[in-house]
Amino acid sequence: MRAVIQRVSKASVKVGNQIIASISQGLLILIGFEELETKEDFKWLTNKIINLRIFNDTKGLMNLSVSDIDGDILVVSQFTLHAWTKKGNRPSFARAAPFQVSENYYKQFIEILQNVFHKPIACGVFGAYMQVELINDGPVTIIIDTKNKNF
Questions:
Q1: How many folded domains does the chain comprise?
Q2: Domain that residue 101 falls in
Q3: Cβ–Cβ under 8 Å, residues 134 and 28
Q4: Which of 78, 140, 149, 151 is deepest in the core (most CB within 10 A)?
Q5: Active-site residues: which are they?
């Protein structure tokens, strides 16, 4: 499972011309899944995201989590996070979990995140063509891969 976590001052996702979700200050999480994800990976990642200290304290140091600032979270599925670009110029997405598996993982991830965060999670529409707008605050972007927890 790969997550790109962006600290944002605001973010939204559109399907067609309709905004279906938006947040103020908080985290935009782009999430992609491989075939064999585990419940432990979901729990580890959600805990890591909720406690990630990437928001500034009163001294301007990144010491606060999204929970500490009472921030929002927007989650958008993105299978392209598992693009393999070693050969040629067209990315392969063979490492990404199949549609039905990913959809199930997406729902599980949001449910576990919701249980830990205790605040409504804004979401994109799984499998839809979406347009994501954001103001990356900092910019701060963190990449986490559950298959490489030391990264």
A1: 1
A2: 2-145
A3: yes
A4: 78
A5: 78-80
